[in-house]
Specification:
The chain is of the alpha+beta class and about 325 residues long. About 40% of the residues lie in helices and about 20% in strands. A hairpin with a 2-residue loop joins strand 2 and strand 3. Keywords: DNA-binding, Transcription, Transcription regulation.
Length: about 325
């Protein structure tokens, strides 16, 4: 599939949120897209970069091509060989990937601290990406946004229609972004963090909204508490009914969620209208997630970010993102 416009969804079917979760809520697919953004295109390159089986790699590459995120092109006919090139649809994921880098760097301890820093070439400073409102330019946190279901919204339509098998816990998928993949690299985890940002705190609320098996909900809540993204609190009037509240670390994940939703509604369009309508309370305008440099407050754009490797002398070894 070559670069094209948005995918028009079927009326009454899975909406943009569900389609996004079905694609990005899979750790192998998310990792493949990360490697693709760094220039890998061929099967052998992906295979060497990831602890993935041939069958799983083939399946994920096929899926990503079908969803319009990779363009499969034959470069040799005897024997048959293909390469998988990023499309406009996958290239516009870079703000989300940048937000993932920042969250891991800030919140995951030594593993995050080992990630390379980045410099904004526009101002020359090392920076952190700042989530802002495109309409007014102001910095934004989850509490600043009013969200409501749109014409194609609702929890039932926002759950992916298909699922993928989780890897065995003994397999390490990515040493770079392990906690992001634990939260976002699974469709139920992605849906659960979204529900938490919508204000859900009780087990029964998560179960009713997501429609997932109770054992799966319980396992994900325990995992999120272990990661420090949620914390369990006893209900004031019902001590036997714990509530699950976002921590500072959990709230800091909001840019990843916001940017993925923005991407979803750009590329998957329902004829009934958007799945989620978000308003920035401060300016009253529709909220469109955007990243700016926290040092100069100018918008971040592709080609203006340089990786500064983690080495003693940063002045002699630099690469451009």
């Amino acid at each position: 599939m070559t670069d094209g416009g948005p995918t028009l969804l079927e009326p009454g079917g899975t909406n943009a949120v569900g389609r996004m979760l079905g694609i990005l809520g899979d750790e192998w697919s998310l990792l493949l897209l990360g490697h693709s953004s760094r220039g890998l295109t061929r099967y052998g390159e992906f295979r060497r970069a990831m602890p993935i089986s041939n069958s799983v790699l083939t399946h994920r590459l096929t899926q990503l091509a079908e969803h319009g995120l990779l363009d499969r092109r034959i470069y040799r006919t005897n024997p048959l060989r293909a390469e998988y090139l990023p499309t406009a649809r996958s290239r516009t994921l870079w703000p989300m990937m940048l937000a993932i880098w920042e969250w891991e760097r800030r919140w995951t301890g030594p593993a995050g601290e080992a990630l390379p820093r980045r410099r904004h070439d526009t101002c020359g400073a090392e920076f952190a990406p700042l989530l802002t409102c495109r309409a007014c330019g102001a910095p934004v946190e989850a509490r600043d946004i009013r969200a409501a279901w749109g014409p194609s919204g609702g929890w039932e339509r926002s759950v992916p229609a298909s699922s993928t098998r989780r890897r065995p816990d003994s397999v390490t998928v990515s040493p770079q972004y392990p906690q992001t993949l634990e939260i976002f690299g699974n469709r139920w985890s992605s849906a659960l963090i979204g529900a938490a940002f919508r204000g859900m705190v009780r087990f029964s609320e998560f179960e009713s909204a997501l429609g997932a098996p109770p054992t799966l909900i319980a396992e994900r809540l325990r995992a999120f508490c272990a990661l420090g993204v949620l914390e369990s609190r006893q209900h004031a009037r019902h001590p036997g009914r714990p509530e699950y509240h976002l921590t500072d670390k959990g709230r800091a994940f909001f840019p990843i969620t916001a940017l993925s939703l923005h991407w979803a509604q750009k590329w998957f369009v329902s004829p009934e209208g958007p799945a989620l309508v978000q308003t920035h309370a401060a300016c009253g305008q529709d909220f469109l997630a955007h990243l700016a440099c926290d040092q100069c407050r100018q918008p971040l754009r592709t080609g203006t970010i340089t990786i500064v490797p983690v080495i003693e002398d940063r002045t002699t070894h630099e690469g451009t993102a």
